[in-house]
């Protein structure tokens, strides 16, 4: 089992290579669950934790935490990511004209959708990000993800397991103005801990943590703009230690990139991803819609709930759309 080194210390904003390397060494979970592991931090979400989560259903109210999947989404073509294209294969018109070939007046409708797996509410799988050619658990990236997909940690392996205790940390409401954080706001461990204290909840082993910044609410009010890839509030690189120590199973935000944008180092791109996915083995969700949940939590004062958020078992995929459902 890899236990990691001591905390790497203060953040040197002029040394991204050094900071990433130090955090990767300090917070590595390589070997923690054996050399064949495919689940990463989902190993923390065990049967006891699911029973704990299921016991949180009090009122029976269910809330979808997904954005819509349609052509009016946030994508602008970066890395060939597009919004979903939905096409009807059979329609009511076809049925009314009687040209579908079914007997006894039967008619029907069918449709198809084409989209990148990470164009809307989604999970980042363990094969999504590498660090210096290494994938989760120290495997060579070229042996993990090929043109045939993720041959080792495809997201289909996670499909049965993402259900348990969800915890909302509405940092936008606690630390922001009118429930929203400004672009470039770096959420630190102190912000996360203060928000949990304000909500009266604890965060720990096996939890699925949802961090609301208010960025999606602003995009809905002002238009998508640069929501997908532009400036945004998000987690600070310095939260890598908190993500490791708390032993959470997964984390999701209402932003495109999970971590603060612009990133905190000069000439860097998504450095927290570079540590969290290939080294911690952390399951990361992005573009979740947490606004209705936040309102409900503020109304009833309960910030933990049963959460189910299974990825689609697309064989060999490095990400997946998801319709998370919180039940309170």
UniProtKB/TrEMBL annotation:
Signal peptide: none annotated. Coiled coil: none annotated. One of its GO terms (biological process) is L-tryptophan catabolic process to kynurenine. Gene3D superfamilies: Putative cyclase. One of its GO terms (molecular function) is arylformamidase activity. InterPro entries: KFase/CYL (IPR007325), KFase_sf (IPR037175). This is Cyclase. It comes from Streptomyces cacaoi. The lineage of its organism: Bacteria, Bacillati, Actinomycetota, Actinomycetes, Kitasatosporales.
């Amino acid at each position: 089992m890899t236990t990691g080194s001591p905390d790497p210390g203060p953040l040197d904003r002029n040394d991204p290579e050094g900071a990433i390397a130090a955090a990767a060494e300090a917070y590595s979970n390589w070997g923690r669950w054996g050399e064949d592991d495919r689940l990463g931090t989902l190993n923390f979400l065990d049967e006891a934790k699911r029973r704990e989560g299921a016991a949180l259903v009090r009122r029976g109210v269910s809330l979808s935490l997904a954005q819509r999947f349609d052509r009016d989404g946030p994508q602008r073509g970066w890395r060939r990511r597009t919004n979903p294209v939905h096409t009807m294969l059979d329609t009511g018109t076809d049925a009314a004209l009687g040209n579908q070939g079914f007997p006894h007046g039967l008619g029907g409708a069918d449709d198809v959708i084409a989209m990148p797996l990470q164009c809307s509410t989604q999970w980042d799988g363990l094969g999504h990000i590498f660090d210096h050619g290494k994938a989760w658990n120290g495997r060579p990236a070229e042996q993990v993800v090929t043109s045939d997909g993720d041959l080792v940690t495809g997201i289909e392996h996670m499909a049965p397991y993402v259900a348990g205790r969800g915890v909302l940390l509405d940092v936008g409401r606690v630390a922001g103005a009118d429930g929203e954080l400004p672009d470039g706001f770096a959420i630190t461990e102190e912000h996360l801990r203060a928000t949990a204290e304000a909500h009266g909840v604890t965060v720990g082993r096996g939890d699925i943590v949802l961090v609301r910044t208010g960025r999606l609410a602003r995009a809905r009010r002002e238009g998508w703009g640069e929501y997908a890839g532009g400036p945004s509030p998000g987690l600070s690189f310095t939260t890598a230690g908190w993500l490791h120590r708390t032993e959470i199973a997964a984390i999701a935000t209402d932003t495109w990139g999970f971590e603060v944008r612009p990133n905190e180092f000069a000439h860097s791109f998504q450095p927290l991803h570079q540590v969290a996915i290939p080294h911690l083995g952390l399951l990361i969700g992005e573009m979740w819609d947490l606004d209705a949940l936040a309102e409900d939590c503020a109304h009833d004062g309960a910030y933990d709930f049963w959460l189910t958020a299974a990825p689609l078992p697309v064989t060999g995929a490095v990400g997946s759309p998801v319709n998370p459902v919180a039940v309170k």
